[in-house]
UniProtKB/TrEMBL annotation:
SUPFAM superfamilies: Winged helix' DNA-binding domain. Keywords: DNA-binding. One of its GO terms (molecular function) is DNA binding. Transmembrane segments: none annotated. This is Transcriptional regulator.
């Protein structure tokens, strides 16, 4: 409870909250000066905000040389610690572990059900987004991409998207895995389920889709990286 109160107190400051949101979208280390410049505040004030976030384990920092001479810079990045606020107490992570291990004990049929359910939830997410439109037939490629981006943001992926000039390949990176703690124990089934979840999202928007995983953060990469070959 004491840690919970500290976290809520730290995030009650609007500037500090938006600094944290900025860092979640930056996908790399930030400096005090960068935060000061982007939020039009004095570097000492920026340093104080960053230190407060580090005090409650929302950020971590380290000192690195810049290669330009002078004093080393202190760099800040998101912490890997999971922070959850529930009133009253809930343990959804334990429920996820129990559910996952139950599915795996069912063998191949359990895995098939897991992957099928993952794709179903991906489709349902996009269907919710499509309620704002008459249908997918008249949507442009850019509209479909924006729907994907918004859905990925809503899923907490902290994503980045890019496309080739012909608009036939979507490159995207996921910098936050919502299933990371469970995936650390059951990498193959969780990652396969997540891939099906993503396929469900794409298949709800495009006539054809081939999804290729290029990088996985559980192997030490900075992000999970994918290429999606799409037919509009």
């Amino acid at each position: 409870m004491e840690q919970t109160l500290k976290i809520t107190n730290v995030l009650s400051d609007p500037t500090r909250y938006y600094i944290y949101q900025y860092i979640t979208k930056r996908h790399k280390d930030v400096t005090v000066q960068e935060i000061a410049d982007n939020f039009s505040i004095h570097p000492n004030v920026a340093r104080l905000h960053l230190s407060k976030l580090e005090d409650v384990n929302m950020l971590v920092s380290e000192t690195k040389k810049t290669g330009k001479g002078g004093r080393p810079s202190r760099l800040y990045r998101l912490s890997d610690d999971v922070i959850q606020l529930h009133f009253p107490y809930r343990d959804y992570q334990l429920l996820a572990k129990i559910t996952m291990e139950t599915m795996l004990e069912l063998g191949e049929e359990g895995r098939k059900a897991l992957y099928s359910t993952g794709k179903k939830f991906g489709r349902e997410l996009i269907q919710q987004e499509l309620k704002r439109f008459a249908g997918t037939e008249k949507l442009t490629f850019d509209q479909k991409l924006n729907i994907l981006k918004h859905a990925a943001d809503m899923s907490g992926f902290h994503p980045e998207f890019d496309v080739n000039a012909e608009k036939t390949i979507v490159y995207f990176q996921i910098y936050n895995c919502p299933f990371k703690e469970v995936a650390a124990r059951h990498r193959e089934p969780v990652c396969n389920m997540h891939n099906e979840y993503l396929k469900g999202m794409f298949e709800s928007l495009f006539h054809s889709i081939q999804l290729v995983e290029k990088q996985n953060m559980l192997t030490g990469c900075d992000a999970c990286s994918y290429q999606a070959f799409v037919g509009n």
